[in-house]
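queue> pop job 88
queue> type: inverse folding (structure -> sequence)
queue> payload:
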């Protein structure tokens, strides 16, 4: 069961990288600009290290599925629904990099009606829930801290770029919380 779940995670990440690469090409053809390139390799390294740490902790320490797996798996499924909703809402604007089409309107539909960064909320939830699903507590602890650090770099860069390049981001940012819904 673990290896099927792990294979799903790896395939999902590879599919997302493919979507991001396609969207990057489409956006740059339209004149989009990339911001914050310096941190991107660290972010990718963090996510690769997370997957490796998760695999190694579960396999080497013979971890089993959590007794709370139904609750944790439900949270994981909810996160996947939110991920697909966020990606499809942004369409070709979605990317793993900070690539912004100058003077574009900020997307304010889908999950973005409720908060500014639903995709980062999903990633944060996954970094806790995925390891806990198989009792990989070391991975959950370490990468929750590392992800918080990465988001403390990433989100201000993205928000600064959006504020600088779009006409309505500052108003949107005042109306919406980063991670908690405002209805």
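queue> result:
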């Amino acid at each position: 069961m673990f290896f099927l779940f792990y294979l799903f995670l790896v395939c999902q990440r590879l599919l997302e990288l493919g979507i991001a690469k396609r969207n990057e090409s489409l956006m740059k053809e339209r004149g989009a600009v990339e911001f914050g390139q310096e941190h991107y390799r660290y972010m990718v390294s963090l996510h690769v290290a997370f997957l490796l740490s998760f695999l190694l902790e579960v396999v080497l320490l013979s971890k089993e599925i959590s007794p709370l797996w139904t609750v944790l798996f439900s949270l994981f499924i909810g996160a996947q629904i939110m991920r697909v909703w966020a990606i499809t809402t942004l369409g070709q604007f979605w990317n793993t990099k900070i690539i912004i089409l100058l003077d574009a309107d900020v997307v304010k539909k889908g999950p973005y009606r409720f908060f500014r960064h639903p995709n980062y909320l999903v990633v944060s939830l996954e970094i806790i829930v995925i390891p806990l699903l198989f009792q990989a507590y070391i991975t959950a602890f370490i990468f929750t801290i590392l992800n918080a650090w990465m988001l403390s770099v990433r989100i201000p860069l993205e928000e600064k770029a959006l504020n600088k390049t779009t006409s309505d981001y500052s108003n949107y940012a005042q109306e919406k919380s980063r991670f908690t819904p405002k209805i």
